[in-house]
Amino acid sequence: MLRFRCIQLFTSPFEAPFIQSFKPHTSISCAQMGSYSTTSSSAQNSPKLVFRQLFEKESSTYTYLLADASHPQKPALLIDPVDKTADRDLALVKELGLKIIYAINTHVHADHVTGSGLIKTKFPGVKSIISKASNAKADLFVEPGDKIYFGDIFLEVRATPGHTLGCVSYVTGDGPNQPQPRMAFTGDALLIRGCGRTDFQIFTLPKDTLLYPAHDYKGFTVSTVGEEMLYNPRLSKDKETFKNIMQNLNLSYPKMMDVAVPANMVCGLQETKSEAC
Amino acid sequence: MLRFRCIQLFTSPFEAPFIQSFKPHTSISCAQMGSYSTTSSSAQNSPKLVFRQLFEKESSTYTYLLADASHPQKPALLIDPVDKTADRDLALVKELGLKIIYAINTHVHADHVTGSGLIKTKFPGVKSIISKASNAKADLFVEPGDKIYFGDIFLEVRATPGHTLGCVSYVTGDGPNQPQPRMAFTGDALLIRGCGRTDFQIFTLPKDTLLYPAHDYKGFTVSTVGEEMLYNPRLSKDKETFKNIMQNLNLSYPKMMDVAVPANMVCGLQETKSEAC
């Protein structure tokens, strides 16, 4: 049975994290297939959202910076930060006048070391977030249905297992003051024209939802739910064909696996372990 | 003296290209420094604009796909296509149901071979575009003040010499039906937190104008005029300091220079030369 919690920005230093029950968002409407006016551009009716897509070239990883610019504190979060580019990302946060409050991972990465721990050593107030199902260390654990607030904007947590058991996707909220079209940060669960048996959750989102994965190896930066339903070479197939494709990929052993996974279980800082998470 | 022309999409195959004089856009208003709600996201009031930022990893080059999705023909253009990723870009154009009409370069590149010629061999109806001042071959030559229409959306041509004499930037139009905030495709003239003595033209744009350069070597994908005025380590300096910085860069000889420049003078296809351009 799922629990639904609400993680909010604490405007006072004396406020502690709290868990709030609320009615889960059970009926996701499936809108008509929209036009492809993605514009890498999301947030069309939300001038308050700051959004930046950042790239780490060695592992082809995308890190996403989101912030609520209309909130007095300009609270910001980073999704899937990389240790090697953490300084770049924090410099940008400073230049944009933002206050970093969360370092969030979609899952325990096997191809790069997360920047969460490093960010926390530089900004001790930052809370690291990962799914409870990942079994990794973090300050806050999320479960499907949870909402992560930064200012007045929130991310909704969706279970998208397949790549790893604990994989979740973070989706911008559904509401009048939330970015439109919605944006889904899919981690490694769904790549553009690529992998992941995660269509059950992600493909119930409106077709114009912008898809932001954790990697791209061909130079794409964004897609939509509608496009992936049509053109994803794996997810557009029937179940048996999909299983055959996945069983015959013959992928080589990930070169960073033995370094990255143990490090990412403890926020990217093996030496200091639990203290950093 | 500048001439001002208007390049429009021909809705009938019998219509020939025409040159139209119009009053140049001489007074660019310089809006208040906006918030940094760039959202990689542009086009906030323009649901008809299709926009995709595409990356070629070897030369860290950005190619930009723009189209007018609300026009019956869904006319599209590519800015700074790369030969190695031309097939990827054309496949995406097809998947999105677009009709490619222009292959546009900001300048004669020295670090990669343009995809313009290759695109034209696959889609002979496509017209290649470059600035007249570049002295390169192309189907259409643009000059500062020209407008390049694709459907009802247009790009305005701005002279941004410095990197090369013929460098131009393409800026989305200023008008009620044009994308807001405006988007400037700056080529190599202005990189994010990087080079180019081109501030005279680009820095007269509103501060919330989204800046899309032709490369990024640090993993950034977009910036704004306001940000670069504040944080660009070269352009935020006075003229003498800037000159000193540029004279002491001690850059190595570009590895692709001897291949790329001759090829890019003839649309990327040296063998077929003028036929392909």
UniProtKB/TrEMBL annotation, chains A, B:
Its cofactor is Fe(2+). The keyword Metal-binding applies. CDD domains: POD-like_MBL-fold (cd07724). It catalyses: S-sulfanylglutathione + O2 + H2O = sulfite + glutathione + 2 H(+). Keywords: Acetylation, Dioxygenase, Iron, Metal-binding, Mitochondrion, Oxidoreductase, Transit peptide. One of its GO terms (biological process) is hydrogen sulfide metabolic process. One of its GO terms (molecular function) is sulfur dioxygenase activity. It is found in: Mitochondrion. Pfam families: Lactamase_B. GO terms for cellular component: mitochondrion. InterPro entries: Metallo-B-lactamas, Mito_Persulfide_Diox, POD-like_MBL-fold, RibonucZ/Hydroxyglut_hydro. Its EC number is 1.13.11.18. Residues 60-215 form the Metallo-beta-lactamase domain. Belongs to the metallo-beta-lactamase superfamily. Glyoxalase II family. This is persulfide dioxygenase. It comes from Solanum verrucosum. The lineage of its organism: Eukaryota, Viridiplantae, Streptophyta, Embryophyta, Tracheophyta.
